[in-house]
Amino acid sequence: MRRLAKLRVRTAALIIVVCGIAFAIPIVVGAASTVSMQEVSEGLTCQCGCGLTVANCNHPNCEFSVPAREQIDGMLKRGMSGPQVIAFFRGKYGEKILSAPTTEGFNLVAWIMPFAVILGGGALIAITFGRWRAKAPAPSRGDAPDSSAARDADGGGFDAELRRKLERELRERT
Amino acid sequence: MPLIGTLALALALVLAGYSIIANVVGARASIPSLTASARHALWAMCAMVTVAVGALSTSLLHSDFSLEYVASYTSFSLPTIYKITALWGGQQGSLLFWTWLLTIFTSLVAFQNRRRNPDMTPYALAVLAGIAIFFLGMLNFVTRPFELLAVIPTDGQDLNPLLQNYWMAIHPPSLYTGYVSASVPFAFGAAALMVGRLDDSWIRSTRRWAIFSWFFLTLGNLFGARWAYEVLGWGGYWAWDPVENAAFMPWLVMTAYLHSVMIQERKDMLKVWNLVLIGMAFALTLFGTFITRSGVISSVHSFTQSGLGPYFLTFLIAVVVLYTALLLSRVKQLRTPAEFESYLSREAAFLFNNLVLVGIAFAVFWGTLFPVLSEAVRGVKITVGPPFFDKVNGPLALALIFLMGVGPLISWRRSSFDSLAKTFASPAIFGVTTGVCAFIAGLREWYVLTALSLAAFVLGTIVVEFRRGVSARRHMVGESVPVAIVNLIGKNNRRYGGYVIHIGVVLAFTGIVASAFFKTEVKKSVKQGDSFQVGAYELEFLGMNTTETAHVETSRARVEVRRNGRPIAMMEPAKLFFKRLQQPATAVAIRSTPAADLYVVLAGIDDQSGLATFQVFLTPLVFWLWAGGVIMALGTVIVMWPNVRERAVIAAAVRVPLPIQDDSQVVPGGD
Question: Measuring CA to CA, which residue among B161, B143, B141, B142 is closest to residue B86?
Fold first, then answer.
């Protein structure tokens, strides 16, 4: 009976949390709209020397980003796509105006290298683990993990480390 | 004042040099009186740098324009608070401030360890003094804060308007504190290598310093983001600017280190890796300074650029080469018989967490330096901006959040699929349900769906852990739930403080994802009395109000915000004009709620037509980025809170009696 009551409480709590999320999400989604102007201006670097994107340049009367934003807006309103607008600016100012490296030639290295390093690191971990595993003595039967997550079987759901700490605490109290 | 400051800096340099020699000779020849003398020299060095800081601050406050620094970064009309913060607003002052923090921390370390770690401490102090020598050398010979002008101007040039903001008063000190305090664990790591004391005593002795550094790096990054949000007026808070990246990388590596040392403390594994990580974290703090000051990469943080780049680069290379050589010389002794049983273990989860954290740090490093590499290889200087960093780091951030949920709950040594299923069932169901609800509600971006599911999964795992702990205390000690929660955190502060930090990270991550994907922007030019709609809000331009002080002219717009026809706020975005510098600036108005921020910028005013142009951003859930930051800070305070039992363990670990002690006995003490 107690288990059933506990289950009900948990189910009720889960339903409340899920309903909360379900109500909260439309608030976030409702704020969404097309951001192509933002996307395009994020894709271009301001040429005023601030080092930021056209979208983010903070100079109030910037001679580059302010007219560029107006130009992008006009081009998008005339029906040009984001990539077309970016291609137009690239043609006019060269590769330096792009806010991210292209995916061709030497620039490809920029994109590949971080993942290659992580994969290499993962492989190194796997090889090292393999060696350590080979050296480690085989676990005997009943050799339980020394884990904080090695849960007690009494249904209390708390771990051995916590139990040891509590027992020590109780001993110290008395 | 200039003479006092100059003499104080010269004396500090001499004292730092003496301290290195006395520490090393005293330790090698076992002359305790010499190491004690070295310690006193470090305290005197700190006093001298304090005198120099006092001298410069006094000159700034009294507008002594005979000093080049004061004339370059202040003016008569600059408010007093910014005359004080101008100390770190320019090149020489910020270096002096950095050096001051370094000497304070060095003095604290010398004091803390006057009776502890007698074998390692002299070498650690020598390393810290070595770092101080570099900075003091810069201040004495290369970039002098007390340089006098031949002709004294009638007024100063004033402080950059972007720096005249209260976040700038606290962002650089926080970040510098984080950077500089990373020197302490680095110095002890190097000292451990020098003396061959390769157990985990150097980690235990500097654990609080490492957390302290991480705490201030977190705050520094957050305050910087908040500064960008409030001052730069583009509705965002992070632009992947090289200097932002330079502050982010040490934070990532320090986070990896704080997780990795848990494995060494528990399993006596990863000794080399931990030494590599702390070396990397320290080198990245120097790299950050190099980036900020060299001008090698264009950045929004151009106010401290100078010709110091080559000096910093040389020092950085010297540190990396010497530390690597030291590490390689000890690598055989650092190898311990490691035990590893299964990929389904906490040590595996922590190692993969390290891989992802260092991987993100590498991606940021690579993206920051790629323009320089491209120019060297192809002769074309390209830009690596937000789209690159978002695309590369986005998936890695998801992996990190996943591992953050798995790591704390999985067993050490090995775990079975059955126990994993039992442990993770509820959080996994909660995560998936959240994702499904989000999909039903209309979200279609796979990244956001995954991010929300993972965030819910991690929160679920933390709730499960707290529930288990509370149940245990209720079952065994008979405490009420609130008392059990307080005692659970109080008596296991490292573990549960860590979970509080994880809650903060998840909330901040949710805020970042929502604000990145769902920010909307409206730009409108309106006349007085006109209204326009932004999402659910109606904004009415009521008029302009102009005020003027000796320092700045302010044109403030009054905008009434209504929701469902009911007025809910009056917002006052403004345009500022700094008279001395003849520079305009923007003061944004922000209405922040847990659901969304309404961010209004007065983009322009046309006096002839009477039109005011507003740029308005509606950014959902960005509130949770800052709230998450506050929770992370709270969690870090919990982790750092003194724990009597732990202090006893540290004291036992660090006590190594010397044959002769100079002025005291070896007694227990915590850090």
Answer: B161
Residues of B in contact with A122 (CB under 8 A): 352, 355
**Is residue A19, in this structure, part of any structural domain at all?**
no
Task: Please tell me which residue, A136 or B595, carries the higher pLDDT value.
Answer: B595
The Cα B128–Cα B107 span in angstroms is 10
Provide, as residue numbers in chain B, all residues whose Cβ is less than 8 Å from the Cβ of A149.
Answer: 346, 409-411, 415, 419, 423
Nearest CA in chain B to A111: B392
Burial B250-259 (b: 16+ CB within 10 A, else e): bbbbbbbbbb
Contact assignment for B374 to A101 by CB distance below 8 Å:
yes
- Measured in whole angstroms, how far is the alpha carbon of residue B491 from the centre of its chain? 28
Residues facing residue B605 across a β-bridge: B612
Strands B520-526 and B611-620: antiparallel
A143 pLDDT above the threshold of 70 = no
Q: Which residue has the tokens 């403080």?
A: B497
A117 within a domain of the structure (yes/no): no
Does residue A122 belong to the interface with chain B, where contact is any CB pair within 8 Å?
yes
Higher-confidence residue of B575 and A20: namely: B575
Task: Say if CB B381 and CB B374 are below 8 A apart.
Answer: yes
Q: Is A135 close to B492, i.e. CB distance below 8 A? A: no
Contact A58 B300 (CB under 8 A): yes
- CATH classification at residue A59: 1.10.8.640
C-alpha dihedral (A35, A38, A43, A48), degrees to nearest 10: 170
* Partner B contacted by A108 (CB < 8 A): no
Question: How many Å lie between the alpha carbon of A83 and the closest alpha carbon of chain B?
Answer: 14
Query: B163, B265, B291, B341: which to substitute to probe chain A, counting the most A Cβ within 10 Å?
Result: B341
Counted across chains A and B, CB pairs separated by less than 8 A come out at 242
Domain, as residue range, for A84 = 36-97
Best of B302, B383, B443, B493 to mutate (most A CBs within 10 Å, chain A): B383
For residue A129, being part of any structural domain is answered with no
Structure tokens that stand for B269 in this block: 């594994």
- The whole-number mean pLDDT for each consecutive block of 10 residues of chain B, a chain of 671 residues, reads 90 95 92 92 96 95 92 89 90 92 96 88 95 94 90 86 84 92 95 89 89 95 92 86 90 95 84 93 89 64 65 92 94 77 84 94 94 88 88 94 89 79 89 93 90 95 90 83 87 90 96 91 89 93 90 92 93 90 87 94 86 91 95 93 65 48 34 35
**Rounded CA separation A151/B484 (Å):** 19
Contacts 24+ apart (CB under 8 A), B398-402: B398/B447, B398/B450, B398/B451, B398/B454, B399/B356, B400/B353, B400/B356, B400/B357, B400/B360, B401/B451, B401/B454, B401/B455, B401/B458, B401/B505, B401/B506, B401/B509, B402/B454, B402/B457
Give the chain A residue nearest B620 (alpha carbons).
Answer: A28
Dihedral-angle region of residue B379 (phi above 0 means left; psi in -120 to 50 means alpha; beta otherwise): left
| B 620-649 → A contacts, CB under 8 A | 620-621
Domain count, chain A: 1
Do the Cβ atoms of B121 and B664 come closer than 8 Å?
no
In a domain, A89, yes or no: yes
What residue type is B570 in one-letter code? M
